[in-house]
Amino acid sequence: MTNSNVLTERKARTRRMVQTAFLAALVFVMQILSYIVPIRVGIFSLSFVLIPIVVGGALLGPAVGAFLGAVFGLVTVIGCISGLDSGGVILLAANPILCVLLCLLKGTVAGWFSGLTFRAMDRALTKKKPASAATNYVSSLFSAAVCPVTNTLIFCVAMLTIFNEQLVAWAGGKPILVYMLTGLIGINFLLELGLNVVVCPVLIAALRGTRFFRK
Q1: Residue 61's domain spans which residues?
Q2: Distance of CA 178 to the CA centre of its chain
Q3: pTM
Q4: Which pLDDT score, from 0 to 100, does residue 130 have?
Q5: Strand partners for 35
Q6: Worst-scoring range by mean pLDDT, 50-54, 119-123, 211-215?
């Protein structure tokens, strides 16, 4: 490998680290702000924290998506310990180790799956024809949907199994399935899913055209 190639590789590696650090900082700040200054639509709160995770997974790959998801999970753990996340405080008291593992796992897997989905869709759509704005949009759309769905699905499975006793207490006598759909998941999930699938494809396309993220 020539000195020129080594220098180019080092620049690419440094650039990738800076991009990842920038997105990680966004995830950290956005999640902290969601605790301190929640954004509400009527009685429902909105979270934008999954957007940079989806963007990172799409533009920088599944590994970066997983890392950003882990950062999200870490901030969630901080929220549980500090008392900023009221529901998390209860789960932390019930089983500290499993609560921490759940926070880290659901974010990491959601980020990884999101990036993996974008890569798989992009390869499938460009197998017989060159990449275009349309193929990038479709890949981004699926990636944006997978992230919140995976995050919520892992949380629900954990509540049904590991934290079932707490789930029953929260349901307050209501059928568990009804409570999960209307209370635990509810309108918030649908709003966040809609927000992701609307914002992420546009944002990914826009950032791909910038000097900072252009390959």
Answers
A1: 3-208
A2: 25
A3: 0.91
A4: 75
A5: none
A6: 211-215
